[in-house]
Write a structure and sequence with these properties.
Elements (H helix, E strand, L loop, with lengths): L32 E2 L8 E6 L7 E7 L3 E7 L5 E8 L4 E6 L5 E6 L3 E6 L4 E7 L4 E8 L4 E7 L3 E5 L8 E4 L4 E7 L2 E6 L3 E6 L5 E7 L6 E8 L7 E8 L3 E6 L9 E4 L16 E6 L6 E5 L4 E5 L4 E5 L7 E6 L5 E6 L17 E6 L10
């Protein structure tokens, strides 16, 4: 059983392995656990292993074309286990529900399946442009992967076949997607939002007018509060430091709202600095959420109380992605340049980091 107290919520165990001696305090202002041997280039995506296996494994894909896998031990130490290379930057990763395989979507226009037991990979999907998203779908009557691409298609693949079992044309390039059976939501260029139902076979459920005025960056489905575990809506993040909470069938129009985040507190010469929301993830136990941004901060939120639970100190670089482990004890976040300020702000001297934080208590909802 994972014990957060041994995972280093301060106390005597911290520091010996949380941060390496070479890491300055300014690079790890939250004093979180540092993952060994992080990627050499910007960290695009990360995902923890599913609840079906006893250990916690973390995989991360980056712009150095590699996907790395670490085991996260109960004392917070990480052990590098394996690595696979793609033919281009890795845009997304997804675990098979049995924890034996990882799907890797790449700018090389393919998706590969990495069998962790044999450390072999094989191609299971292809598009005519970079593949931006990949998700594993486990339905009662079928299992497949869903891939979204800049070729303006959404494809569903039985990984044993060379051709997709279904192709859906999107109105524009796929920028972000999420799956929580029986629902999928896809955000594209030109601020299109499409919700799909996945029962029996995938089909379009409804198109939603975007509640945000700027480019979609990330989307994450949340479940209802009744405890049925059914998907109820989604959070959508944009490049303009704003998140929208959108219900699929809102009981009242007031249930849908947007909030500002990842913006500078003060103003410089009368202007406020506004940063992109790079990732949104919902806590698997509490239903609260995390956002990470180009401002180098992570924030925890309670959407039902409409309040911020925590705001981190600023890292030296943007936070490009994040993930919770399956039981919500660990929050992982990747610190690396996201090119939001262009090439002139790229500093090759700045190292990339993945940090792990015990987070279960910090994400408990406000008592209401």
């Amino acid at each position: 059983m994972f014990n957060p107290s041994t995972f280093g919520s301060g106390g005597s165990g911290f520091g010996g392995f949380g941060t390496t001696a070479a890491t300055p305090a300014t690079a790890n202002p939250m004093k979180d656990f540092e993952v060994v041997n992080p990627p050499d280039d910007s960290i695009q995506c990360m995902e923890f292993s599913p609840a079906s296996i006893p250990q916690d494994f973390l995989v991360a894909g980056s712009w150095d074309n590699n996907v790395r896998c670490w085991e996260v031990q109960r004392d917070g130490k990480t052990v590098g286990k394996a690595q696979q290379q793609m033919g281009g930057p890795v845009m997304d990763v997804a675990w098979h529900d049995d924890g034996s395989k990882v799907f890797m979507a790449s700018a090389d226009k393919t998706v590969q399946c990495w069998d962790l037991g044999s450390n072999q990979k094989m191609q299971v999907a292809a598009h005519e442009a970079p593949v931006k998203t990949v998700h594993w779908i486990k339905a009662p009557t079928y299992s497949c992967i869903m891939t979204g691409s800049w070729d303006k298609t959404l494809k569903f693949w039985d990984t044993r076949q060379a051709t997709p079992i279904m192709t859906i044309t999107l109105p524009e390039r796929c920028y972000c997607a999420d799956v929580e059976y029986p629902m999928a939501v896809v955000g594209t260029a030109n601020r299109n939002l499409i919700v799909y139902q996945l029962e029996n076979q995938p089909s379009e459920y409804k198109q939603i007018e975007s509640p945000l005025k700027y480019q979609h960056r990330c989307v994450s489905i949340f479940k209802d509060k009744k405890g049925t575990g059914s998907p109820a809506g989604f959070a959508l993040g944009s490049v303009e430091g704003r998140v929208a909470i959108q219900y699929i069938a809102a009981a009242s129009p007031r249930d849908n709202f947007t909030f500002k985040c990842h913006r500078s507190n003060g103003t410089t010469n009368g202007f406020q600095d506004i940063y992109a929301v790079n990732a949104i993830k919902f806590h698997p136990a509490h239903g609260t959420l995390s956002t990470v941004g180009s401002d180098g901060r992570f924030s925890f939120w309670d959407k039902d109380a409409r309040t911020k639970l925590k705001n981190s100190e600023a890292m030296e670089q943007p936070i490009s992605c994040c993930a919770f482990n399956h039981n919500g004890q660990i929050f992982a976040y990747g610190v690396s340049y996201d090119w939001s300020k262009g090439h002139e702000f790229f500093n090759p001297q700045k190292k990339n980091f993945i940090f792990l934080r015990p987070c279960y208590d910090e994400l408990k909802p406000r008592s209401r």
